[in-house]
Amino acid sequence: MNLAYIPEQLPVLMTLARAALSSLGGAKDESAYTFAPKEYGTACNPPSQNLVADYVKSCGGNAADYRGRLPFHLFPQWGFPALMQTLTDLPYSLTAIMNGGCSVKLGKSLSAKGKLVVTARLVSLDEGERRIILNQELVTRDSEGNAIAVTQTSIVRRTLAPKQNKIPKADAVVPDNAREVASFSAHERSGLEYAFFSGDFNPIHYLPPYARAFGFKRPILHGFAQLGRVYEGLRKNIFAGVADPLSEISIRFEKPFFLPQVCRVFLTDDGDYYLGAAKGGLAFSTGHITIAPAYAQPTARSNA
Question: What's the CATH class of domain 3-24+33-295?
Fold first, then answer.
């Protein structure tokens, strides 16, 4: 962890502080709220190249591959404040929002030179008895005209209804036909390490008592930290480290990723991937990759 990166996280930290303060007012009247799409745009400085290099190393990637460029999976660092701005009118506690997953459309990696132009949108809201699902979009453009587009799903959990009325969720299982293509070890301080890179200092990721207070037996790894490790593992072992091998990647968070943990990435021939401990075991995350046309016939170096 590098304390020198704290100043770069001030926009995210201020956003988290405002969210915490807004929750102190108690429950809001949901019946008085009428949904309307909301958009917020801003321009910001990209993260420093030192931060980017250390972050890429933590994901198992090669920092030299990102000289002058930005890894797309660090988008929470510059995009989170704008995304939160689209939620300020909601009648729900912003501190109760959990990531459900995202899909990212990719082109060329963003330039680390000049300003990033960020546009966030709250697109839709689906209310249920147990949870509210928020659908947001985040588009980031760099000074060279490159762009990445993120479609993100977030979940606000309501007070639970009686357990006997709950419909069990089907567990995601790593299939036998998937091959192991990458692996990584997340240590006890991986949650705090990611916080210094992203600015997301939610204590459930690094303080055991706080994690237990929210129903987790141990701290859990950030979902987007999982995305970064998956992407860099695939890029290294499937695409021999080439830049920008994918045109799209998605991730869905299935089960809490407790720390510490050794984990593996499994990939099927159809482009579906699973983040889990072993074939036949439960997956922490699942997703799909779409290969960029230039790399439509990759040569896999399987770890299986």
Answer: alpha beta
